[in-house]
Design brief:
The chain is of the alpha+beta class. Helix content is 21%, strand content 14%. The protein has one domain: Glutaredoxin. The strands form two sheets. A four-stranded mixed beta sheet has the order 2-1-3-4, sandwiched between helices. Strands 5-6 form a two-stranded antiparallel ribbon. The longest helix is centred in the N-terminal third of the chain and has 12 residues. It is elongated, with a radius of gyration of 16 Å.
Length: 153
């Protein structure tokens, strides 16, 4: 299912997900820890429409360039490090090679975030965390009472 607008399902959470990415898996797990089951879009198979991608980038407060992923992508081979490239060219590259879209983007009724680190999703989840959450690497993010812990409080 291709989403036509990012506010299409205003009450539904959508994650643009890559299951091979630990940050994306942690973000999905934090969403589920709030009691929500999001729409999961495997953006490598079904990238967002250009307008949706642009809208997510703007609403997340990013530039197109900061939404580009460099590591493990054809970024260098495509010459995307050229500072003279305009946003349209960068968006064209992202849509032609979805691996260039940084991940995970999450859309909720409260906003849009590029969830790097994964706990940024907590800023836009409509429901509180239901209990303890520990990232895959063992970092405690949410305590047994559902409150954020650590330096990101």
């Amino acid at each position: 299912m291709r989403h036509n607008t990012i506010t299409e399902n205003i009450m539904k959470i959508t994650i643009y997900h890559n299951s091979d990415c630990g940050t994306s898996r942690n973000t999905l797990a934090l969403i589920r820890n709030s009691g929500e089951e999001p729409d999961i879009v495997d953006y490598l198979i079904m990238p967002p429409a250009r307008e949706i991608l642009q809208d997510m980038i703007v609403k997340a407060g990013l530039s197109v360039r900061t939404a580009l992923r460099e590591k493990g992508t054809p970024y260098a081979e495509l010459g995307l490090d050229d500072p003279n490239l305009l946003d349209d060219a960068l968006l064209d590259a992202m849509l032609a090679h979805p691996i260039l879209i940084n991940r995970p983007f999450v859309v909720t009724s409260l906003g849009v975030r590029l969830c790097r680190p994964s706990e940024l999703v907590l800023e836009i989840l409509p429901s509180p965390q239901k209990g303890v959450f520990t990232k895959e690497d063992g970092e405690l993010v949410v305590d047994v009472n559902g409150r954020r812990v650590g330096s990101h409080v």
